Amino acid sequence: MLTLQHWLSFYEKNYVCVGRVTGRFYGEDGLPTPALTQVEATITRGLEANKLELQEKQTFPPCNAEWSAARGSRLWCSQKSSWNGSLALAPGSLKHACYRLTLQFLR
């Protein structure tokens, strides 16, 4: 839906509206149909979700990962990341085992 909204924004900026096509989104009277209202609400929710995701990434930047044949895998996080490298996992716990497997996989 957001891709559709970006496309529509482009056309609204660069082209002159000369009319509407009667059908799913506009009635014969030229007024929006309930289907268009629903699409617009979905787009609004998508834009809000993107905004929240960007705010969250600024507050808690994601960790980074890379892989190369020469070096293998590497994982690093900034000081602000949601994971800063310090985990309190009890040895023998399932989380501890998963964490160790993840680290081994990344090496």
Average residue pLDDT: 78
Encode the helix/strand succession as letters.
HHEEH
Please, how many helices? 3
Helix vs. strand class: mainly alpha
For the CA atoms, what is the radius of gyration?
24 Å
- Overall 3D shape: elongated
**Order of strands in the sheet with most strands:** 1-2
Distance between the termini: 39 Å
Q: In percent, how helical is the residue content?
A: 40-55%
The total strand number stands at 2
What is the domain tally? 2
What would you say this structure looks like, in words?
It is built from three helices and two strands. With 107 residues, it is mainly alpha-helical. The chain has a two-stranded antiparallel sheet with strand order 1-2. It has two domains: 1-59, no CATH class; 61-106, no CATH class. It has helices at residues 2-14, 34-59, 94-106, and strands at 64-68, 72-76. It is elongated, with a radius of gyration of 24 Å.
